[in-house]
Amino acid sequence: MKKHIPNTITCCNLISGCIATYFAFQGDFRLALLFIVIGAVFDFFDGMVARLLHVSSPIGKELDSLADDITFGFAPSAIIYGYLRPETELLPFIVFVMAAFSALRLAKFNLDERQAMGFIGLPTPANALFWGSLIVGAGDWMKSAPFIGPNLSLVILAGVFISCWLLISEIPMFALKFKTWGWKGNEIKYIFILSCIPLLLLLGVTGLAAIIAWYVILSVATNKRT
Fold it and tell me: How do residues 24-46 score in pLDDT, each as one tens digit?
């Protein structure tokens, strides 16, 4: 019985992604983001439970990637599509390329043995949370901003292509995994965690997008495997 628990949690992640996609197509980006966050919680616990119960399996690994591509690849793409759809007819369809690059990133992760204590390229949950929180928190502002507003579709699509590149890039990015709790060797992680607090307090939901951007910048600036 216990061997089915992690896969059940993974399926809850997948279902959360499906619900997020539904709300994205309905134009309710706030609820779409909420279900992406719920999916991220399930994604965090499925692997942990599998390790605790000693029931990790190849099928669980494959199911996890499938669920992640729905929740962190297709759902955020649907949010961007729904956001851009009133602006132009054809360009929004291009955003679904991000779902394809998310799938490629997940496939690479499954085969890459270098990512035990860190990441190579932007993790799909981080990318999904960036786009979801950006549109929920700053979507109205972007439409009225002096430069971004008149060029909204092109600016967003340029951002999507940058995301696609980051997903499959060879840039080392740190993970919030700790071998010890001391400051030495964990400086970057603690600096990042402490800096997240003012960003959230000052920017609200948009702060989540700022945190992901800061995570990428900090990873590039330190540029070492952690």
Answer: 999 999 999 999 999 999 999 98
Cα separation, 194 vs 53, in Å, equals: 33
Mean pLDDT score across all residues of the chain: 91
The CA distances from residue 86 to 25, 89, 192, 206, in Å, are 12, 7, 37, 22
Q: How confident is the model at residue 224 (pLDDT cuts 50, 70, 90)?
A: low
Kindly state the average pLDDT of the residues 99-122.
87
pLDDT of residue 179: 75
Which residues lie closer than 8 Å to 225 by C-beta, 6 or more apart?
A: 114, 117, 118, 172
Residue type at 7? N
Q: Over 60: is that where the pLDDT of 214 sits?
A: yes
Residue with tokens 């962190």: 72
In the chain, where does DSSP find H-type helix? Answer: 5-25, 29-53, 58-69, 75-84, 97-111, 124-144, 152-168, 187-203, 206-222
Adjacent-strand bridge partners of 172: 120
Query: What mean pLDDT comes out for the span 123-136?
Result: 97
Q: Which helix (H) or strand (E) segment is 28 a member of?
A: none
The answer to whether 142 and 87 are in contact (CB under 8 A) is no
Which residue type sits at 75?
A
What one-letter code names the amino acid at 32? A
* d(C-alpha 156, C-alpha 178), whole Å: 35
Given a contact cutoff of 8 angstroms between Cβ atoms, the answer to whether 19 and 35 are in contact is: yes
Tell me the C-alpha distance between 203 and 137, whole Å: 8
Which of 95, 12, 96, 89 is CA-nearest to residue 46?
Answer: 12
